[in-house]
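Work Package 4 report. The design task specified in the project plan requires that, given a folded chain encoded as structure tokens, an amino acid be chosen for each position. We show below one input record used in the internal validation round.
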């Protein structure tokens, strides 16, 4: 003879499965796109975490990503002279864009521009002075002028 409790459990199980499958079909809310802390920047995507480059990366790579996190507005105002802005492959907006992916990790020009910008920032230069200095040091003949 079947106990009433067993029958109740058997009847409840299909209802529970249907309810749980209905819940799983509800769309989950998508998180807001990640953005960097600079509200005035052209580049709004976040820079990569410098910790990603703590082991196995070339010297100076982690420091470059730390600089991008520390001075996003400064780097956002500087043109990158590795030609990534003009490249049909990259279409980078500013030097800051180079640090939103692994591009800067493999580019000495991006890292050099960021290091120079940080050194000048720490000496108290304005962003306009930093832009002029970094771009005059890294500008190459034939490269279009930046605005």
């Amino acid at each position: 003879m079947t106990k009433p409790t067993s029958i109740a459990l058997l009847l409840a199980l299909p209802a529970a499965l249907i309810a749980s499958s209905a819940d799983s079909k509800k769309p989950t809310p998508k998180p807001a796109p990640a953005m960097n802390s600079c509200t005035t920047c052209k580049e709004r995507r976040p820079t990569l975490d410098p910790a990603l480059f703590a082991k196995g990366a070339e010297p100076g790579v982690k420091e470059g990503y730390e600089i991008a996190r520390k001075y996003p507005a400064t780097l956002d105002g500087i043109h990158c002279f590795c030609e990534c802005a003009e490249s049909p492959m990259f279409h980078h907006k500013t030097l800051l864009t180079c640090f939103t992916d692994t591009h800067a990790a493999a580019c000495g020009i991006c890292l050099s521009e960021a290091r120079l910008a940080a050194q000048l920032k720490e000496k108290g230069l304005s962003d306009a002075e930093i832009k002029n200095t970094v771009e005059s040091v890294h500008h190459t003949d034939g490269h279009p002028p930046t605005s």
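Helices lie at 4-24, 61-70, 72-76, 108-122, 127-138. Validation will be extended to a larger panel in the next phase.
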